[in-house]
Amino acid sequence: MLKDMGLKEFINQTASKEPVPGGGSIAALSGLLGAALAEMVANLTIGKKNYLEVEDEIKEIQSKFETLRFEFLDMIDEDAESFDLVMQAFKMPKETDEDKLVRTQKIQEGLKIAALSPLNIARKSFEMIDICEVVVKKGNKNAVTDGMVAAMMARTSVLSAILNVRINLSSIKDEGFVEEITEEIDRMEKEIFVKEERILKSVEF
Q: Which of 39, 104, 182, 187 satisfies CB 3.0 to 4.6 Å to 65 for a cystine?
């Protein structure tokens, strides 16, 4: 599994001719790094006397980041597995009309799964940037830039995942499915920049 690889092995495989890990897995990794970094800020805040009045809130947020961290870790492999479903469908026989019909159906099913996988990554990262804002504003000021970088990683994760959603949507024939998902990712794509800008401008040096 990709998530069980060492860092060097993972990077080498990403750079190789192998199709996985691809952009979706890297989008999940971006979210994972953001969650881990923001969780660090929370941990650097908990137990510090200057932040006792926000400690309960930060503890709750730390728990959320920890959960997100494990979810993103799983999504690295989930995205790769969804890509494999599409590839397997393309390899199905197409000798007869029935073969072609079944193959087309499986490809379409696979493409939907391959679109929903990065969509889930985008949703999680979109959710995460709001709690990144809390650690930036209320967390340990000595680690404020780490919280800001975490927010930037969340933005990158959202945008990267959306790209992977779009490329799969372009081959899906279910117009209702495509329209519904497109509306959601268009909204996230627009709003994520607003959220990031608000966070970055909240800090003065």
A: 39
